[in-house]
Amino acid sequence: MGGGPDELGARLKAYEGRPAAVTGVGKDPVNAPMIRHWCEAMGDTNPAYTGPDAIAPPTMLQAWTMSGLGGHQSRTGAYDELLGLLDASGCTSVVATDCEQEYLRPLRPGDEVTFDTVIESVSGRKTTKLGTGYFVTTRTDVRVDGEPVGTHRFRILKYAPARRSTAKARRPRPVVNRDNAGFWEGVAEHRLLIQRCAHCGALRHPWLPGCNACGCPDWDTVEATGEGTVYSYVVMHHPPFPAFTESDHAADAGGPYAVGLIELAEGVRMVSNVVGVPYDKVRIGLPVRVEFQTPDEELTVPVFRVVER
Ligand code: ZN
Fold first, then answer.
1. 189 and 118 share a domain?
2. How many domains does the chain have?
3. 216 CA from centroid of ligand 1 (Å)
């Protein structure tokens, strides 16, 4: 799919409001055995779902309309046509993104459910991490004896999978939040900062809002010397992750890499890459020293290089 005018999007829009299923009939009436299985699977012990006055868990709404392996006769051609257009345009992958339900009244054993499904909306072309495609939302109106009992909206993304970039693999971004922002600000200045409790002086890493030792929320920082040892490590073989390997040993790109648990001289431990030796030469007790790498212009990360000591 190109980046030009969204002609496909306009064609897809024409499906909004068309029925996807007409006068569907639930395969089974609302019934106690299905309710019991659901509650067991969910670990839901709410007493409202058992006994002579039991109601069905509201979130079972979709279960009463599901077609099972046999399929439904109620499905119209419009929905298949829509999906066919998307397939033909290269949007061959699909992922369910979310569902929304509204409940108008409880369902009880014996209720016989009917439903109609409409193609409620089709988005314009969207690019997500998965690829470029279209969100399609269907709305199923559920009834008992013609009376509305609930609505189930279901959204999928039908997309063309993103091609794997041939550019240099980008290292994943750290998750920076208000609890650990200070750590990453330090890293940007090539300083390794350890949090220190203002009350009891205990050092901690990773960064947390409060002290594990005394619960005090106040803290300051000390700058680590950067000296440490490999306390433990694992070697990652799968999945291949070139962003973690190509910087230090080009020949190993996409191959195994060592993830170290580094014990700093100050006593706290942190997880990082061990660099400077091949992955299969990393050993517990190896002396290491922090080094700040800048894999791309937006990112600085601390890694630990094996040193002679
Ligand atoms: Zn403390």
1. no
2. 2
3. 5
